[in-house]
From TrEMBL:
It comes from Channa striata (Snakehead murrel). It is found in: Secreted, Extracellular space, Extracellular matrix. Binds to type I and type II collagen. GO terms for cellular component: extracellular space. PANTHER family: AGAP008170-PA (PTHR45712), FIBROMODULIN (PTHR45712:SF4). It comes from the Eukaryota. Residues 46-80 form the LRRNT domain. This is Fibromodulin. The lineage of its organism: Eukaryota, Metazoa, Chordata, Craniata, Vertebrata. Keywords: Disulfide bond, Extracellular matrix, Glycoprotein, Leucine-rich repeat, Proteoglycan, Repeat, Secreted, Signal. Gene3D superfamilies: Ribonuclease Inhibitor. Residues 1-17 form the signal peptide.
């Protein structure tokens, strides 16, 4: 039925000029919505020639993959704006002044440099929830981003620093992608992010775990940095953390305080490609532990089970220990009691 209405509304101008029609009641309905969206176009500005504003999605504007080098004019009723895969080099302060209803703004895969983004370019977008700026050429996070953001993607840029002002007041931010940048310092920039559940800062230049990590995180991705130690009790504050990835860092035994990773709730812990010589104690509720390519010399069963009996055993399913300094012969025979559900142990 929906398809029929869409087809009929496409034929409307033609149908309109003809004699009375048995489907007039149907035209009456679609005619109204056709002219409503036309009116909306005229009131807030027309759809620019280089973009598509389909009548079936009157609040969306598609300008992706068209070789644009500058921002198009944006009718004021548009909520979802697709500008990815172009060669846009600048977002001046004036570019988005009319577009105050925007909810999604997709600007990924362009050629934006920080100097070419107006200090107030995004400031009026009070309803903006998704801002995609990944795969550009930014050296800092744009100023005055709206506090309404929920999903902010800045990965694959050249960002070196994240300051507290950059992410201030973003109470509703849930997803933050900063991976594949050159971040050395985050200061306390994460402190306001009460709703953040996914933080990806892998592939940067961090030498330590960022301060003030939000306590509702579910996923924390820090791999491929140069972190050599973690703060005492840094996981205690989290109640919902399930995935920690810290592969490809410089972690040593000395840098990991006792029981750091023995916290319940964790599902996956990836510490592969570090410099550990011992297996750190983990909670018996952990399911996947990646320790390959470290310098582990001993299989310490006590890291998984401090006692073993009928009710107390590890729920570990995956254990990767390949690329260390132990061999299958180093695994004590009692392990089958402790690691009784492990289906995938690689040594
Ligand atoms: C904003 O809207 C005004 C009035 O409709 C129009 O003159 C102006 O060109 C628009 N600016 C942009 C950047 O779209
Ligand atoms: C990024 O900027 C640098 C100079 O700042 C330039 O050499 C390079 O071509 C730019 N890359 C892209 C993808 O625009
Ligand atoms: C966060 O979301 C709530 C509920 O949707 C909304 O009422 C509130 O204004 C939002 N906060 C900001 C800073 O936009
Ligand atoms: C983990 O901590 C609990 C109590 O918090 C303790 O009973 C258990 O022995 C510890 N596990 C290991 C492997 O040290």
């Amino acid at each position: 039925m929906r398809l029929v209405i869409v087809l009929l509304s496409a034929l409307l101008p033609l149908a309109h000029s003809q004699a009375p029609d048995p489907f007039a009641w149907l035209f009456g309905w679609s005619q109204r919505s056709y002219f409503d969206s036309l009116r909306a176009d005229i009131k807030g500005g027309a759809c620019p020639e280089e973009c598509d504003c389909p009548h079936s999605f009157p609040v969306s504007m598609y300008c992706d993959g068209r070789g644009l080098t500058a921002m198009p004019a944006i009718p004021s009723h548009i909520k979802y704006l697709y500008l990815q895969n172009n060669a846009i080099t600048a977002v001046p302060d004036s570019a988005l002044t009319n577009a105050t209803d925007l909810v999604w703004l997709m600007l990924h895969y362009n050629q934006l440099r920080s100097e070419a983004i107006g200090k107030k370019a995004f400031v009026k977008l009070a309803s903006l929830e998704r801002l995609y700026l990944q795969h550009n050429n930014l050296s800092s996070i744009p100023s005055n981003l709206p506090h309404s953001l929920r999903d902010l993607r800045l990965n694959h840029n050249k960002i070196e620093k994240v300051t507290p002002a950059d992410l201030e007041g973003m109470d509703n931010l849930t997803i933050l992608y900063l991976h594949d940048n050159a971040v050395t310092d985050m200061s306390t920039s994460l402190k306001d992010l009460k709703s953040l559940t996914l933080l990806d800062i892998s592939n940067n230049k961090l030498t330590k775990v960022p301060e003030a990590l939000p306590e509702h995180l579910h996923q924390l991705y820090l791999e491929s940095n140069t972190i050599s130690s973690v703060p005492e009790d840094f996981l205690r504050r989290f109640t919902q953390l399930q995935y920690i990835r810290m592969a490809h860092n410089q972690l040593t035994d000395k840098g990991i305080p006792p029981n750091t990773f023995n916290v319940t709730g964790l599902v996956e812990l990836d510490l592969s490609f570090n410099k550990l010589e011992r297996i750190p104690p983990v909670s018996n509720t952990l399911q996947h532990l990646y320790l390959q390519a470290n310098q582990i010399k001993e299989f310490t069963l006590g890291s998984f089970c401090s006692i073993v009996d009928v009710t107390s055993f590890s729920t570990l399913r995956t254990l990767r220990l390949d690329g260390n300094e132990i061999s299958p012969a180093d695994i004590p025979s009692e392990s089958s009691l402790c690691l009784r559900v492990a289906s995938n142990i690689e040594v």
